[in-house]
Q: What sequence folds into this?
């Protein structure tokens, strides 16, 4: 039985704790980026009165002659080929839909899918035309900002610590116990409702808390960062990871390890 | 309450986890999430408090105003509760959507304070049958992340602890007319004693066990919950069952025992935090809303 109450502590600005020398050029909508007309406009900018103005809040990125603003926190914008994890909220109520789909998918179910096409209003159409996609069974869902999920070759990871994770580009991260044998014939639409072992549960809970810590500290999420964070959290109890001071310590250690690995 | 949609498999996962005393975020069945409490956040109230419990964010303001006592209790002041579920908390509360939940919470607060010992109402009386202090307690729900009742009761207790009621004197002149005099010193106030103010402990029944401080996902897996209001000495002032499921009388007894244990710990933690904050004095660094 544990109960902890504390007084709130003001959050330190991230740049202080990172110790960065080069500060990012941050803008808000309406800020002038540059008055130099030689640049090409990228995402998040528009031309007005001979100057380049930002249309989103974020940091300015410059690649040669292209200037764009990368938003810090944004709604998910679909791209063809993205992997997403989604929840069914509504469905078509037609006769053929009832016959075909009701047995497999219900409202509230989670699925993993790939983006097939993007419409002009931003809506996306998804497909599950591969055996690795489909209905998701037992596990834990963590919702983070889509801008924190790094674009990689594969978003399905079987982590060595004993669980698997799907990093959806839309910010939905699904953590689940690694299936013992690959069920090639089922195709993932029949859920396994047997109890998950306690050891697997501990790994999943720890991963979930690590991902929440990384997201709170605005770190990019990919398999290496999650794994380093998991390893850094091992000395602590699972429920202590979410305490502010322990969260900072673990994420700091992860950050250092990632920098060492790059450099 | 705000509802989250969950798939069957997710619910099964949560229920099995609770049976093994390992919840999704690693807590045991009787562990609370980390709570942050801060008082005196709203400057134009007599007392205020803000409580953050995981994703649940509550702001309470107490205003002391003078009025006439109720007819059946001429020697006492009283408390009035009002709960506003802000549309910021969840889109369901837009417009009049949050009114039902707000009245439910306000009625629960009236019930738990409806006894002689929670707050010393006689100290709120200025002159019998004529003047008394009425404490208007306004609760604002900023964010809804599960376990609303517990967070609100903690915030109400913290705000009442922080309330400063100006000291007044009743003067009678020769013609028998009464005049109320406010002291010149703005810091000359009376403080309420919140020793017996109860806190609510919500116990959600999930499977065969019950959990304390449920998140929104866990609340979606539970069919019945018990709200128990406990004082710092472990005395139960009121109990209420919510949800469409049924509870076995034996499990009700077990849940009551758990709530008394957990309630006492809740009160000691809250008292220590409030005293610690008070000892930092008026010059402490206030975090407020932009921290």
A:
């Amino acid at each position: 039985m544990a109960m902890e109450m504390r007084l709130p502590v003001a959050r330190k600005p991230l740049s202080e704790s990172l110790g960065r020398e080069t500060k990012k050029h941050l803008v808000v909508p309406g800020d002038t980026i540059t008055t130099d007309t030689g640049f090409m406009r990228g995402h998040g900018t528009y031309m007005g009165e001979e100057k380049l103005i930002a249309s989103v809040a974020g940091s300015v990125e410059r690649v040669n002659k292209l200037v764009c603003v990368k938003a810090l926190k944004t709604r998910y914008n679909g791209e063809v080929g993205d992997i997403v994890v989604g929840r069914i909220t509504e469905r078509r109520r037609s006769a053929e839909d009832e016959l075909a789909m009701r047995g497999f998918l219900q409202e509230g179910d989670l699925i993993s899918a790939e983006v097939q096409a993007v419409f002009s209003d931003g809506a996306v159409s998804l497909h599950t035309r591969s055996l690795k996609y489909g209905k998701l069974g037992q596990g834990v869902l963590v919702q983070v900002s889509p801008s924190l999920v790094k674009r990689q070759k594969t978003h399905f990871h079987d982590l060595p610590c004993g669980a698997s994770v799907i990093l959806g580009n839309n910010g939905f991260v699904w953590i689940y116990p690694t299936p013992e044998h690959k069920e090639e014939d089922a195709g993932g639409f029949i859920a396994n409702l047997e109890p998950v072992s306690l050891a697997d549960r501990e790994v999943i809970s720890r991963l979930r808390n690590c991902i929440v810590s990384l997201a709170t500290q605005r770190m990019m999420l990919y398999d290496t960062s999650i794994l380093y964070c998991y390893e850094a959290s091992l000395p602590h109890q699972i429920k202590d990871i979410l305490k502010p001071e322990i969260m900072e310590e673990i994420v700091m250690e992860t950050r250092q390890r990632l920098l060492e690995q790059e450099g | 309450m705000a509802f989250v949609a969950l798939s069957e498999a997710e619910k099964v996962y949560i229920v099995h986890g609770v049976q093994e005393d390992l919840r999704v975020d690693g807590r045991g069945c009787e562990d609370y999430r980390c709570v942050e409490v801060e008082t005196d956040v709203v400057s134009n109230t007599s007392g205020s408090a803000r409580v953050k419990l995981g994703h649940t964010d509550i702001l309470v303001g107490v205003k002391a105003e003078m009025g006439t006592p109720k007819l059946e209790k001429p020697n006492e002041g009283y408390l009035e509760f009002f709960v506003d579920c802000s549309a910021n908390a969840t889109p369901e509360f837009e417009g009049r959507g949050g009114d039902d939940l707000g009245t439910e919470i306000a009625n629960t607060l009236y019930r738990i304070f409806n006894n002689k010992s929670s707050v010393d109402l006689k100290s709120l009386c200025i002159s019998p049958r004529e003047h008394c202090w009425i404490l208007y307690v306004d609760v604002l729900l900023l964010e809804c992340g599960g376990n609303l009742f517990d967070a609100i009761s903690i915030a109400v207790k913290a705000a009442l602890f922080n309330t400063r009621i100006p000291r007044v004197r009743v003067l009678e002149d020769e013609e028998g007319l009464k005049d109320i005099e406010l002291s010149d010193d703005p810091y000359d106030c009376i403080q309420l004693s919140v020793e017996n103010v109860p806190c609510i402990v919500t116990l959600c029944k999930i499977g065969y066990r019950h959990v304390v401080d449920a998140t929104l996902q866990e609340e979606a897996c539970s069919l019945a919950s018990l709200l128990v209001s406990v004082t710092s000495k472990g005395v139960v002032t009121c109990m209420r069952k919510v949800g469409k499921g049924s509870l076995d009388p034996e499990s009700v007894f077990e849940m009551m025992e758990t709530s008394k244990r957990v309630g006492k710990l809740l009160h000691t933690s809250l008292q220590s935090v409030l005293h610690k904050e008070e000892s930092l004095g008026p010059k402490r660094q206030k975090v407020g809303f932009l921290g």
